[in-house]
Amino acid sequence: MTRLINAYIRNEEERAWTVKIEQLAARFAERAPQHDREGSFPFDNFADLREAGYLALTVPREFGGEERSLYELVLLQERLAYGDGSTALAVGWHIGQMLHLRTTRKWPEAVFAELCRAVVADGAMINTFASEAASGSPSRGGRPETTAVKTDGGYVLTGRKTFSTLAPILDRFALSAYLPEEDCTDDFLVHRKDGVTMIETWNTLGMRATGSHDVVLDHVLVEEPYRLRKQGIDDGGGWLLHIPACYLGIAMAARDYALDFARTYRPNSLSEPIAALPAVRHTIAEMEIALRTARSLLYTAADRWDRSETAKRPMLREELGLAKYVATNHAIQVVDLAMRIVGAGSLSRQQPLERYYRDVRAGLHNPPMDSTVQQLLAGSALAEQA
Q1: Number of domains in the chain
Q2: pTM score
Q3: pLDDT per residue as tens digits for the range 195-221
Q4: Would you put residue 364 in left (φ > 0), alpha (ψ -120 to 50) or beta?
Q5: Is there a contact between 102 and 94 (Cβ–Cβ < 8 Å)?
């Protein structure tokens, strides 16, 4: 019988990509314990991702990229997270935003083209830094305290961003800033140069190797062309499905670990492995129900987004949010059940389950938050007309 993780591969081209990513995931899994223990950034993993062409996965073909779909992004991100959740989540912000920029064309075309060519030729990456200590998550609507003051030829930016994933490796990044003269907020593309400092603040329970440190800007000049001037279309936020894909990949790894344990562990009080025990089989069934339900929702949402007309994608926002809500919460449940099967040994730092347990909880704090999805669904239901 085919492995459960392969259930959503649709064709030979996707199968070839999953084989390539599975090889990377196995390599990353060997490095993950050290990066997790040290809280170090996995530069070695990103060198491998660049060599494999993964950084250009969602770059438009016109610039030499792969131009892969949201469904394929989800498929490969889940596989990558099976090996190392931190690396998958971190690179997911890059390939997800490249897909988002491709479909919305929210950046000036010349700036976007420059970025795409740098990704393909040099392995450049992008992320948007929006969170701040005072304003909290940008999804909550807080106004940034980072400011952009107009000057000759551009803007002077000053401020500090938190949760700046990929900060150790990026040579450019987008960020939000408040323009006092215009009383509005806009995004800017900042190149790493004098006045840009990374402060190593990322020391967390889980996802310890994402490099999500603070980034400080001290009177950094950003030229006029790199004010991104919010534009483009609304794509419904489909690119954010890279987040639930990551956490389901972690849950799948925990599930497979627990299954291997159940098939092979036989205490001397039993004549056969614990997989034969009704209680263990019941727990396995609970894992399967949670995991299969979440994956079905996730892949259906990704496929519907891909197939939808551009103008109709915003109408999928509730479905996309539901997919993330179910995936992250069910992933936590699956890891917990896997640890119940393995028992006290699952707490050992010599085994991966305790890392899965810590990493998977981070999904609750990635957008959209549970409360946001609940309010979205409630509002949608109440807005219906009889």
Answers
A1: 3
A2: 0.97
A3: 999 999 999 999 999 999 999 999 999
A4: alpha
A5: no
